[in-house]
Amino acid sequence: MDTGSQDQELFPRGPAVVAPGAVHLPVHLAAERQSELLAACRRWALPPAGLRTVRVRGGVMSVRQVGLGLHWYPYAYARTAVDGDGAPVKPFPEWLGEWARAAVRAATEVAAAAGGAGFGADPAPGEYDVALVNFYPEGARMGMHRDLEERSPAPVVSFSLGDACVFRFGNTESRGRPWRDTELRSGDAFVFGGPARLAYHAVPRTRPGTAPRALGLTGRVNVTVRVSGLDLANEREGGATAEQRPRCP
Ligand SMILES: O=C(O)CCC(=O)C(=O)O
Ligand SMILES: [Fe+2]
């Protein structure tokens, strides 16, 4: 079915449990909050340790990224932009952790009302400590992957800004089916944890030109907020902790 923006008034989008432990929260961020988050993303994108092109085995990702709190690179975390300009990663702001916790609370209510799986214990204040900001210019996509570099089972919270996209949420076993496609629009949040924490997911395409005009963004920005479960101060320099795992460009 076409779920274009013109249908929004006729068929208001409600929160949905996409898989056990995976909840879509449409219009979670009001327009003002979206602008606030976008303004922050623009600051974070500036050097040092700003937006960069990510090299993976077999090429470069079409999505450009910047990390907060810790720097994610294929396929580990570090304290500095080891595959960028080498500068210390920008700090993770406390307010963004609070936004993530609020989204988890909202998603928990949705999951409970549906009688489904929750996310385990609510993350404590200050527990969210890293974020990955993804910028999708027209034509960018992200292949099927799992978020494996964190050592915490806490739910991942994703906030979307700008152009809508198709968000493909699969299973924990393989990159293949079954999966479910959800349209994520500007202001939507998506929370995945519990039994869905290690599920494969992807962004097969964005829908160029669908960003709310007032936001003033060409393209799509996604901010995923996570609990790293890592204390890199006590780990070896560079902080590589995860096995080499492919995240397709
Ligand atoms: O852009 C998105 O909605 C998903 C991003 C994602 O999966 C990731 O950063 O690991
Ligand atoms: Fe991901």
> Could you give a short account of the major beta sheet?
8 strands, antiparallel
SSE pattern, N- to C-terminal: EEHEEEEHEEEEEEEE
Class from secondary-structure proportions? alpha+beta
CATH architecture: Sandwich
Helix content: 10-25%
Question: What is the CA-atom radius of gyration, in angstroms?
Answer: 17 Å
GO molecular function: dioxygenase activity
Protein name: Alpha-ketoglutarate-dependent dioxygenase AlkB
Domain Fe2OG dioxygenase: 127-229
InterPro entries: Alkb (IPR004574), AlkB-like (IPR027450), AlkB-like_sf (IPR037151), Oxoglu/Fe-dep_dioxygenase_dom (IPR005123)
Descriptors:
binds 2-oxoglutaric acid; alpha+beta; 14 strands; 249 residues; metal-binding; disordered N terminus; Jelly Rolls; Oxoglu/Fe-dep_dioxygenase_dom; AlkB-like_sf; dioxygenase; eight-stranded antiparallel β-sheet; oxidoreductase
Note down, in words, how this protein is organized.
The chain is of the alpha+beta class and 249 residues long. It has a single domain (14-231), classed as Alpha-ketoglutarate-dependent dioxygenase AlkB-like (Jelly Rolls). It is built from two helices and 14 strands. It has helices at residues 31-44, 94-113; strands at 16-19, 22-25, 52-56, 59-68, 71-73, 76-78, 130-136, 142-145, 156-162, 164-169, 180-184, 189-192, 201-207, 220-226. The strands form three sheets. An eight-stranded antiparallel sheet has the order 1-2-12-9-14-7-4-3, covered by helices on one side. A four-stranded antiparallel sheet has the order 8-13-10-11, with no helix packed on it. Mean pLDDT is 91; it is low at 1-6 and 237-249. The structure holds 2-oxoglutaric acid and fe (ii) ion (FE2). Fe (ii) ion is lined by residues 145, 147, 201.
